[in-house]
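lol ok so funny story. i was supposed to be doing the assay writeup but got distracted and ended up predicting the structure for this chain instead. priorities right. anyway since i did it might as well share w the group, maybe its usefull for someone
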Amino acid sequence: MISNLALAGHETCSPVDGADTRLSSSRSGSLSRPADLIQIATTTSPQFVRRAIAARAARQRYFASELFADPAWDILLELYALECEQRRTSVSKLCVAAAVPSTTALRWIDKLYADGLLSRSADPLDGRRVWVSLSPQGLEAMLAYLESISMFGVPL
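and the output, tada:
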């Protein structure tokens, strides 16, 4: 499960379930300044990730979409943002969000699931629908990655 954590006025996505939500020095380096924490809160927020998704989509106005096809990353970004917003999505909607043919998106969803980064659950109200989300391992990896790039000031 995920909760939104307010840090210096910014929302951030952080694991709970009894896990230590403090940043570990081994994962994120020395974080003694409040500015470091604000930068991490900004780059781990769902708003930041949504802006990154929009920026990635904007490239298609200038370049052929095949140049930047990265469905696995698009899927992970979308699921991270949804997790932070405490929303869920179905496999079919995730295929649309990945902006690739359904067969390609399904292949990547299967791969990410096999790698332990995604979880699937059947919809008890509609047997045709399957919900997809980041697994605890996938969420931790996304959060760690977003924290790590904040230390370098590198955009997605």
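The chain has a mean pLDDT of 76. The chain has seven helices and five strands.
back to the writeup now i swear
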